[in-house]
């Protein structure tokens, strides 16, 4: 398993230069490190912010599971999508509102064909809301299929 969390992870994260705003580090409530967040008031409605995880050395013809924590806090805060590099058109995962402000777990299966996925993009789309935030944390990549809950 590869730890891609932001506080102590070993992965290569890049801000997209062609988007509308950056993701920023935010301190965790418990004080142990930070997560990446987009506050609700950043940018204009429909603006996008993309944070890209560069993946190297993934073996062809094998499967991986990307597990991450996410939070959509606030009224009409926007959308969080995850794209796999080789499937640009449709998001592999999408969430547009939280039932509450708690952190939840997202999982995405990554199946490597002969073409390997070389990046994963977390995209935040600004909603109408003025309070709250979209947050991502504890990103981990494990080999094999995603475990059942």
From TrEMBL:
Gene: Egfl6_0
Organism phylogeny: Eukaryota, Metazoa, Chordata, Craniata, Vertebrata
SUPFAM superfamilies from the UniProt entry: Concanavalin A-like lectins/glucanases
Name of the protein this chain belongs to: EGFL6 protein
Pfam families per UniProt: MAM
Gene3D superfamilies: 2.60.120.200
Location of the MAM domain: 2-148
Organism: Pygoscelis papua (Gentoo penguin)
CDD domains: MAM
GO cellular component, one term: membrane
């Amino acid at each position: 398993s590869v730890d891609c969390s932001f506080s102590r992870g070993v992965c290569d994260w890049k801000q997209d230069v062609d988007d509308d705003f950056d993701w920023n580090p935010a301190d965790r409530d418990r004080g142990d490190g930070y997560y990446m967040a987009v506050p609700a008031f950043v940018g204009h409605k429909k603006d996008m912010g993309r944070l890209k995880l560069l993946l190297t050395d993934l073996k062809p013809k094998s499967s991986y599971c990307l597990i991450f924590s996410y939070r959509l806090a606030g009224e009409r805060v926007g959308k969080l999508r995850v794209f796999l590099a080789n499937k640009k058109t449709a998001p592999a995962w999408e969430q547009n509102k939280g039932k509450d402000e708690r952190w939840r777990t997202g999982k995405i299966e990554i199946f490597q064909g002969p073409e390997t996925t070389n990046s994963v993009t977390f995209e935040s789309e600004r909603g109408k809301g003025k309070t709250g935030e979209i947050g991502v944390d504890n990103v981990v990549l494990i080999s094999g299929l995603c475990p059942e809950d």
